[in-house]
Design a protein that fits this description.
4% strand; 6 helices; mainly alpha; 167 residues
């Protein structure tokens, strides 16, 4: 059992990666980053000076504003036409949900002159359960063709229909 097995296609890497190569790559990367930084800083200063030279002078007759136009406040915001941007989405959503809950869970008038009122959902369910749903009159129900709902669906139903046709 002291035989030595050799597999010529299975070997390990005989050369290691040089630490000098890794440091050289990192130094080159830092140098390229520094050169790009210098180029971009020069472009920024050139374009900034170019914009300042080409900027039109402000009209001295215009009044200077001391109002912060970035935050106009509620008075100015209400003057804009609809639809407006929402400033408090969660608060507005809560108000809408509370208004819906008030309509759905309380008694109130829909049209007081016509005598139409709304009742809470729970009460409506209790009334329907105790009284039942309204039934159509006999003359309307007699004119309509009625059919029983099938006991089965799909393939079983078709087989049952075939058996009934044979009988």
């Amino acid at each position: 059992m002291n035989e030595k097995f050799e597999h010529p296609q299975v070997e390990y890497e005989r050369s290691d990666l040089s630490a000098l190569a890794i440091l050289g790559f990192l130094a080159g990367l830092a140098l390229v980053g520094l050169v790009m930084h210098i180029i971009l800083a020069g472009m920024f200063s050139y374009l900034d000076n170019y914009t300042k030279r080409r900027q039109a002078a402000t009209n001295p007759l215009l009044p200077t504003t001391t109002v912060d136009l970035r935050n106009p406040g509620p008075k100015v915001a209400n003057e804009f036409p609809l639809p407006r941007l929402e400033t408090n989405e969660l608060g507005q959503l809560d108000d809408q949900r509370l208004a819906e809950e008030k309509v759905l869970a309380t008694y109130g008038w829909v049209d007081q002159n016509a005598g139409i009122a709304h009742i809470p959902i729970e009460r409506a369910i209790e009334l329907v359960a105790s009284r039942g749903l309204p039934v159509e009159s006999a003359n309307l129900a007699g004119n309509a063709k009625t059919r029983e709902a099938p006991a089965r669906a799909g393939r079983a139903r078709r087989q049952e229909e075939k058996r009934n046709e044979i009988k």
